[in-house]
What we know:
Blueprint: E1 10-13, E2 20-23, E3 27-30, E4 38-39, E5 47-53, E6 56-61, E7 64-67, E8 82-87, E9 95-99, E10 103-106, E11 115-116, E12 125-128, E13 136-139, E14 144-147, E15 155-157, E16 172-174, E17 182-185, E18 189-192, E19 200-201
Antiparallel strand pairs: 1-2, 2-3, 3-4, 5-6, 6-7, 8-9, 9-10, 10-11, 12-13, 13-14, 14-15, 16-17, 17-18, 18-19
Amino acid sequence: DIGQAQPPLKLITSGTVGEFYVAAKKLLATKDNGATWSSLSTTGGNFHTGVFSLRTLLAGGDQGLEAAVTPRLLVQPPITDLLGASFNNIAISDLWAASRVGLFRLSMLEDIAAIRIGTVGAVGSVAVGGTTSSVVAASGSDQVFRSTNSGGTFSSVVVVPAAELHADFPPLVIDPITSSSIFVAGKNIYHSTNSGEIGRAH
């Protein structure tokens, strides 16, 4: 199933020792450090991303967003081809989805509509800082969009030089302890210690 997946695919950790998930053509799971794998029952397929929140695995892909471990109804974004997702555990309305159409703020509450962030273009990954953080960052093909006020406003900065080989949407992560520390991967690893304002190659 992994070999048949359309990239990007993602390895997801649950926080439990030895337990991992892979978002691919199907959602694959192991509870013994990869010795054995099984497929999770899902309604969709061709997954590209996933994140744990509120005791369920939120998986996103070509057919939208799905709660895979503990099924629940989710408000879908107006587009379906999701490449990245991130969740802030202290705010039920703080679910972010990245796609080639742009960045969306979603909610697990049925009466709250999805919001597209108008100042953010196509993005392939999104990350939210720790449980007390107001930092949100997303990577586009040639720049990183970041917010330091929980998504109220976004600014952008070019991190990976245009001449440097890199993925269509460079991978991006935020340090879960120090949310001002952001890493972006091109051919080099770029690290910012001030919420993405300035990056340094390693």
